[in-house]
TrEMBL record:
The gene is folD. Catalyzes the oxidation of 5,10-methylenetetrahydrofolate to 5,10-methenyltetrahydrofolate and then the hydrolysis of 5,10-methenyltetrahydrofolate to 10-formyltetrahydrofolate. Belongs to the tetrahydrofolate dehydrogenase/cyclohydrolase family. The lineage of its organism: Bacteria, Pseudomonadati, Bacteroidota, Bacteroidia, Bacteroidales. InterPro entries: Aminoacid_DH-like_N_sf, NAD(P)-bd_dom_sf, THF_DH/CycHdrlase, THF_DH/CycHdrlase_cat_dom, THF_DH/CycHdrlase_CS, THF_DH/CycHdrlase_NAD-bd_dom. Pathway: One-carbon metabolism; tetrahydrofolate interconversion. Homodimer. The keyword NADP applies. Residues 6-121 form the Tetrahydrofolate dehydrogenase/cyclohydrolase catalytic domain. This is Bifunctional protein FolD. Keywords: Amino-acid biosynthesis, Histidine biosynthesis, Hydrolase, Methionine biosynthesis, Multifunctional enzyme, NADP, One-carbon metabolism, Oxidoreductase, Purine biosynthesis. NADP(+) binds at residues 166-168, 235. Pfam families: THF_DHG_CYH, THF_DHG_CYH_C.
Length: 294
């Protein structure tokens, strides 16, 4: 069977174009240009790349963006003061603090300090809780990007068996919540993780597998049912001396052997990754329009 490749890059480009057109119309009508601020602490290579790409996406969407940088030795107090300032800045519609943060800073404390009405990452407990009970809210970027891809490719999820690999706060847990809800995935959801006994068997029975465990090439052909939909959230950097950067991104799925079994599959890179940033843009537009919160 011929599988269909889910092109996250093209989908994200199309959605950003739609956002840009809407922003142009808003500004032409005398409305406010959406403004996203990003806080970057230290010089982690992955975080640097993600934040740079977020700034580029803002330009593509016609948003204003502000990048605030701190060295890795920034104190928690200084970071909290920055969050407070952004909360109060009337021009800033939404902002993010790029994770992970250095170990001496309590991430949860920073997340809790963000005004939930500006929490375009959807990490604040108010947004997480509202999402869990199906109320309007900012949905975190990776799960929202995956939902958008499933919709864009008209992939049927209602009543299907969906296995999620991983239970992180930013992907696995919210993804499970969304996939089970009637208004989103409407699927039967199983969450597997490093301690799951029958992980392989659960996967073999899945119509949809969403792999977000951060273990390169973890999902192999013997785990996948013919005709399954496979979404790969993995982005592990593995050394590759043939690349200018010295590394390449490796997904959680052994693509070459799994793809021929699938009805749909996302590549790495070019699958979920570009959609994540696109979702952040969607949330920023919603923040600018005060769509969820006044
Ligand atoms: N680190 C990994 N993913 C994310 C994300 O979606 N938002 C932020 N702020 N940090 C991250």
């Amino acid at each position: 069977m011929e599988y269909q490749l889910i092109d996250g890059k093209a989908t994200a480009t199309a959605i950003k174009q739609e956002i840009a057109e809407e922003v142009e119309a808003i500004v032409a009508a005398g409305g406010k240009q959406p403004h996203l601020a990003a806080v970057l602490v230290g010089h982690d290579g992955g975080s640097e790349t993600y934040v740079k790409n977020k700034v580029i996406a803002c330009e593509q969407c016609g948003f204003k963006s502000t990048l605030i940088r701190f060295e890795a030795d920034v104190t928690e107090e200084e970071l909290l003061a920055c969050v407070d300032k952004l909360n109060k800045d009337e021009d800033v519609d939404g902002f993010i603090v790029q994770l992970p943060l250095p170990k001496h800073i309590d991430e949860q404390k920073i997340i809790m300090a963000v005004d939930y009405r500006k929490d375009v990452d959807g990490f604040h407990p108010i947004n997480v809780g509202r999402m869990a009970i199906g109320l309007p809210c900012f949905i975190s970027a990776t799960p929202l990007g995956i939902l958008t891809l499933l919709q864009h490719y008209h992939i049927e999820t209602s009543g299907k068996k969906c296995v999620i690999l991983g239970r992180s706060n930013i992907v696995g847990k919210p993804m499970a919540q969304l996939m089970m809800q009637k208004q989103y995935g409407d699927s039967t959801v199983t969450v597997c993780h490093s301690r799951s006994k029958d992980l392989k068997k659960e996967c073999q029975e899945a119509d949809i597998i969403i792999a977000a465990i951060g273990r390169p090439e973890f999902v192999t052909a013997d785990m996948v049912k013919p005709g399954a939909v496979v979404i790969d959230v993995g982005t592990t950097r593995v050394e590759d001396k043939t690349r200018k950067s010295g590394f390449r991104l490796c997904g959680d799925v052994k693509f070459d052997e799994v793809a021929p079994l699938c009805s749909f599959i996302t590549p790495v890179p070019g699958g979920v990754g570009p959609m994540t940033i696109c979702s952040l843009m969607k949330n920023t537009l919603a923040a600018g329009k005060k769509e969820y919160y006044k």
